[in-house]
Specification:
Blueprint (H helix, E strand, L loop, with lengths): L1 E6 L4 H11 L4 E7 L11 H4 L9 E2 L11 E4 L3 H11 L5 E4 L6 H11 L3 E4 L5 H17 L4 E8 L9 H13 L4 H4 E3 L13 E7 L5 E9 L2 E9 L3 H14 L5 E3 L1 H4 L4
Parallel strand pairs: 1-2, 1-4, 2-3, 4-5, 5-6, 6-12, 7-9, 8-9
Antiparallel strand pairs: 7-10, 10-11
Length: about 270
């Protein structure tokens, strides 16, 4: 039985992870962590997640429960996830990180810490989205420079980073397939008289509204036709199921930094 510790367990995504683990064979929640000032500390995380009592209190410090787990699952924020990796690094406990919005300096630190632990970090744990990554690269290579590329993403009003980590990953993948650098050709929103679209541009548009779980579309626009590749998340359970799949996979791997492409054998 795999022993999981959920960081951010009282949040929307953390609660979904707790409930999904509870419904999944071969894995169980053995620890639950929230920020030190969270009002529900010491409450049973099963009750917090709507499951009823499961005998696991919500703690304010990962270090207090790290020895109870085989893997930490963290969907929080870059700063919190960095702290989780600091704790797991060298402890023998693996990590699955679904947070987005890491800056380049943080990613360098993640790579350093992953040398001492096993870590799956992905901007999107959905199986379907990771298949989309592979398809987007292949389509870009086939269509080439004659087709314009625009990426649209939509999320709930509470999302803090923009564009989404998934949209950025799509942009990087498509840019690489077209031998471009997203830092040079990315256009993040348009306003005013901006002139004609440059052929090398990769546009990125973000929508924030209501409770949208997550929609992503890559448009390949040619003269006379367009091809659209779309993924829509109907609920957060698909992210949780992907994280659990990653947790089951990563605990058998050597130390290193992985993503969902590795987990799903897409590389």
């Amino acid at each position: 039985m795999i022993r999981a510790i959920v960081v951010g367990a009282a949040g929307r995504m953390g609660g979904t992870v707790v409930r999904t683990i509870h419904e999944t064979d071969g894995i169980e929640v053995k620890g639950a962590v929230e920020r030190p000032d969270h009002p529900l500390l010491d409450h049973d995380v099963g009750q917090v997640a709507g499951l009823g009592e499961i005998g696991i209190p919500l703690m304010g410090d990962l270090e207090r429960v790290i020895e109870k787990g085989d893997v930490v699952i963290d969907f929080t924020s870059p700063a919190v996830s960095m702290r989780s990796l600091e704790v797991t690094s060298g402890s023998g406990v693996a990590a699955v990180i679904g947070s987005t919005g890491f800056n380049p300096q943080q990613m360098e630190r993640v790579a350093q810490l992953a040398r001492k632990t096993r870590c799956v970090l992905s901007p999107n744990m959905s199986v379907g989205v990771n298949v989309m990554f592979t398809l987007a690269a292949e389509i870009a290579r086939i269509l080439g420079d004659e087709y314009d590329v625009e990426i649209l993403e939509a999320h709930h009003r509470f999302k803090k980073d923009s564009p989404s980590g998934t949209a950025m990953k799509l942009g990087e993948i498509v840019a690489s397939a077209l031998n471009r650098d997203l830092d040079d050709v990315g256009v993040f929103g348009r306003k005013g008289v901006v002139g004609e679209r440059k052929s090398q541009e990769i546009g990125m548009q973000a929508i924030r509204a209501g409770d949208i779980v997550g929609d992503h579309t890559v448009i390949f626009g040619g003269l006379g036709e367009r091809l659209e590749l779309t993924h829509r998340a109907h609920s957060r359970e698909n992210f949780a199921r992907g994280a659990i799949k990653a947790a089951k996979w990563v605990i058998t791997q050597p130390n290193g930094l992985y993503d969902m492409g590795d987990v799903l054998g897409l590389k």
